Amino acid sequence: MRHFTIPIFIPMEACPFRCIYCDQEKISGHAQVPDAAEIKESIEKHLATMPKSAEIEVGFFGGTFTGLPQEKQVALLETVQPFIQRGQVKSIRLSTRPDFIDDKILQVLKAHHVGTIELGAQSMDDEVLRQSGRGHKAVVTVAAAKMIKASGFRLGLQMMIGLPGDSAEKNRATAEAFVAMGAEDVRIYPCLIIKGTPLEKRYLDGKYQPLSLAEAVQITAQLFPIFEDAGIRIIRTGLHPSEGFLNGDELVAGPFHVSFKELVVTQLWNEILKQITVNKNAEEITVSVAPGQTNAAIGYGAVNKKMLAANYKKVRFRQDASLQKREFYVDYR
Asked: Which domain does 51 fall in, by range?
């Protein structure tokens, strides 16, 4: 069954913190929490474009949902209830901070058909959290995740690579901690420098250097197998900002690319295909891959195909239904 999420953005009204990298208004393109009429209209417009047989959820993103006053949380959740009662929407997904979770909050969310809670963990390294101005330690994330799982919610965790004080080793440790906490969904974002944030000042003062695009792709590619081997869904890789953010000058620096995920899966396949033994007696090569993996194996900009073409006059890719994930085999001619 196909799955869709209808996004509703609620920017920073609920959050008392300003992390060093954060400006949710610029990132989401939304400055105010939408009212009930706007939410209803948005849901109806999305439903009109989605198959009736699909599994649909409404997602409240962009801010600290559970940091809102309880009456506002309930009001937002109530706008979705008629769609759930009619069977048009199955459940609600929301994002929040780890330090805005407690048993009372979870009871309210459960009563309003929230199915998934995503925590903006960002890192499980206390020094990275401190330098990033997160306002809590990693143990708070562990405790919140435990409560969420115990209450029967689906757990999503969000991580950010390239934060101040970060490293590839710390990123890997964060990913492994996510697995240990029982995450079912993850999002991986490279840290970007947004105009007007404290991180921009540190960058301009020469006190912070963002990851290069190549570094961000390489680190993320190393994280993918950790989550995939644990059966965790990677539901987003890289920031998907508003059109205004893309076309404006709000992005100061950092590893942003509109096809960041494609670059990551290209890198994963590149490492795999480098292992192919060169057959000097063959002029052609055919690489068989699992269904749905052809474009990824060929690579963004056909980079992987070009790599193989350096040794052969003709390079082909074909699908084989007997293969799974990134399995492959090679035929030479």
From this structure: 3-258
